[in-house]
From TrEMBL:
<dbReference type="GO" id="GO:0005829">
    <property type="term" value="C:cytosol"/>
</dbReference>
<protein>
    <submittedName>
        <fullName>Diacylglycerol kinase</fullName>
    </submittedName>
</protein>
<dbReference type="GO" id="GO:0016301">
    <property type="term" value="F:kinase activity"/>
</dbReference>
<dbReference type="Pfam" id="PF00781">
    <property type="entry name" value="DAGK_cat"/>
</dbReference>
<dbReference type="Pfam" id="PF19279">
    <property type="entry name" value="YegS_C"/>
</dbReference>
<dbReference type="InterPro" id="IPR045540">
    <property type="entry name" value="YegS/DAGK_C"/>
</dbReference>
<dbReference type="GO" id="GO:0019242">
    <property type="term" value="P:methylglyoxal biosynthetic process"/>
</dbReference>
<dbReference type="InterPro" id="IPR017438">
    <property type="entry name" value="ATP-NAD_kinase_N"/>
</dbReference>
<dbReference type="InterPro" id="IPR004363">
    <property type="entry name" value="Methylgl_synth"/>
</dbReference>
<dbReference type="InterPro" id="IPR016064">
    <property type="entry name" value="NAD/diacylglycerol_kinase_sf"/>
</dbReference>
<dbReference type="GO" id="GO:0008929">
    <property type="term" value="F:methylglyoxal synthase activity"/>
</dbReference>
<feature type="domain" description="DAGKc">
    <location>
        <begin position="8"/>
        <end position="138"/>
    </location>
</feature>
<keyword id="KW-0418">Kinase</keyword>
<dbReference type="InterPro" id="IPR001206">
    <property type="entry name" value="Diacylglycerol_kinase_cat_dom"/>
</dbReference>
<keyword id="KW-0808">Transferase</keyword>
Amino acid sequence: MSDSNETERRKLAAVVYNPVKIEVDTLRPVVEAEERAASWEPSLWFETSEEDPGGGQTKQALEAGATMVLAAGGDGTVRVVAEALQGTGTSLALLPSGTGNLLARNLSLTLNDLEHSVHSAFAGGDRTIDVALVDIHREDRTHTKHAFLVMAGFGIDAKMLSATDDELKAKVGWLAYVQAFAAVLRDKNLLHARFSLDRGETRRMRANTLIVANAGSLPGNILLLPEAAVDDGKLDVVILRPEQLVGWIQIFVKVLWENGVLSRTRLGRRFRTREVKALNYLRGEDFRVRLSRPEEIELDGDPLGKAIGMVVRVAPGGLTIRVPADVAEEGEQEGTSLAEADSGAS
């Protein structure tokens, strides 16, 4: 029997956990029970720290031969672990914990059920999703490369995250963002920028908020970008530029009513209005923006300081996610049906 066959059959998980978000003494016996039931090797355990929020630990797990990494923590832990796993083929399992759980929400995964999440990791199947790769440019001409799974942005969302009180968030969850949102609304500074989509012509914009997304849903079941999907090979861009109160009314009606209600049914989609002046959507595979001055930037709910610009491109199918077995099976059946349809059309 060849070594390659031995490697293919090996099943080894690694748990990268944030000790602030996760009670490891509660998590460990659940993981151990599921790994035994699924005939996996004993899992590896890596604790994150302020100095290394998960990237280094994930690389250690890969070097040790892990075939699946369980990210146990908030959105920041998930993003950093995914950044290290992107393009490797090693699957990522989500153990949602924290306030946002942005990726888990967009994948319609179960929240706040540790046993179910761990069981889905060891007994589930794989689904590939896109990853957004971003090159962040700083004012001092340096730049850093990252990945995100849901959204990156400048403007109100980034300022809101920077202004959110961590102690309040720990007590009341995502509602803490409401207080921060009210505070940043008083900031009259606008974004002045030049941008291009798919390396086309450079355009100018003045906006309140700019978001580049790989998925469309926010906490509170708010559907910001109704056309966005994690596996469509596209980036979705939304530009918010309200003028006075009427602009905010347009945005709230569009997002909360049209996106949140009408867009969720086939019949409702017939009644959607055209794009409004205060809110514009773009789609593409490559988005580049340069600001007139440094502004706060966020990736998947993590504030990353100030930046002068960014280049974002999509990596289709760049990450493998563990999902419940029935969800993985449905995805395979849909893929087969599409393949058969394409064959019949050719």
